[in-house]
Amino acid sequence: MKNILLPTDFSENSWNAIKYALQLFKNETCRFFLLNTYTPAIYQVEYVLLEPAQFGMVDAVKENSLKKLKELKTRIKKEFNNPKHTIKRIAAFNNLVSEIKHIVQNKPIDYVVMGTKGATGTKEILFGSNTVHVFKSVKCPILAIPSDFNFETPHEVLFPTDYEVSYKPYHLKPIIDIISLYTTRVNILHVSYGYDLSELQKANKKILEKHFKKIAHLFHDVSNQTVEEGITNFQLKTRINLLVMINNKHSFFENLFFKSTINQIGFHLNVPFLVIPAKNNKT
Known about the structure:
This protein is an alpha/beta fold. The chain has 9 helices and 10 strands.
């Protein structure tokens, strides 16, 4: 059974991500956790300590959160009546990133599936700050779904790599688990700067070959392009349904996301994006 965490702020963007998850795993036995976090707008710890009546406000916000989660669960049952899927609700008095970290540490969560922007998202910002912070701090595969993306079977997966990661089974299992549900080809894209592969890179490439030997895969090498250009140019030639990256601290992933303006990214991403942490909770 897969355990999938679905954070929601009840926006259309988060509903779109939930729909994607329900369709992606439609043939899998899954337990979905709908998560809404809340903090009352005028909540102050010192006021609660001094004024017990403030607790009533917290309770009211929690009741509203649970009510909306119940309505969302009813909507899922109505639109996606899948006997393989169980829906659980979590209303938590916490900020979103801390609560996701807490749940991932305490439940066997396989994926967190979330929209790329919250209710106040703007078109200029690809990833909302919550999504970026989740990428940075949550040790669990994160699937980020663009706001307007309608579900597509992941027939073509793009996996850019610098071969600097010594791939472990927990890096590749989240990818293999998804693509084994469908007829999928993995396109492994190496963007080089004209140098030959080091012995370590060659060894890591062999690990990938071994893990993907039962799955259709192609290796692609491009040079004299940035990673962003390589990804963008590949998407122009091939209809990609899913982009996958490993968030390795010293890899191009970090340069791509965290060295420049935190919300900006150099390529236009219009497909779901699976981010796998370099380390998981067991490492």
